[in-house]
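Work Package 3 (structural annotation) set out to generate three-dimensional models for the target panel prioritized at the project kickoff. During this period the team completed the workflow that converts sequence records into discrete structure tokens, so that structures can be stored uniformly alongside our sequence database. As a representative example, we reproduce one entry of 146 residues exactly as it appears in the project archive.
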Amino acid sequence: MNEHFPPFLVGPLFPTYCLILTVGDHSPRHIRRITRTLLKEWGTEEVTDAVESALTELVTNVHRHVPDRRCQILLLRQPNAIRAEVTDPIPQLPTLTPDISPDSESGRGILILDTITDKWGTTPTPQGGKTIWFECATPMDLDDMP
């Protein structure tokens, strides 16, 4: 069963959104819509295209490579960036492979992530899975935060 945790405040200032789901064929489209809505609410529309595209890549990877297709998505507004995390139960970490054949139909996800985000990385989870995270920089005025 998919679970939705509505946006809440982390600490005194920073809104967060968490979604636990089984990724289906239409999940990327729904996640893009949720992301677009949150970034508009948070006043950070300038990074919408990058965040949507990067999340779509990571969710598509879950659909293709995680047997039970379960993951957790976390979106976090930080003082100068939007941070997104996708956690799944598979321990294999992705690698950046810049020498992909032009005819290859896959293998570009991390290259795309590296190109359209300002920072990204991976973190093994204590349960044996991994979290892939990225950040897209955006100037934020703390006085404008909801």
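Strands lie at 3-10, 14-22, 70-78, 81-88, 119-124, 130-137.
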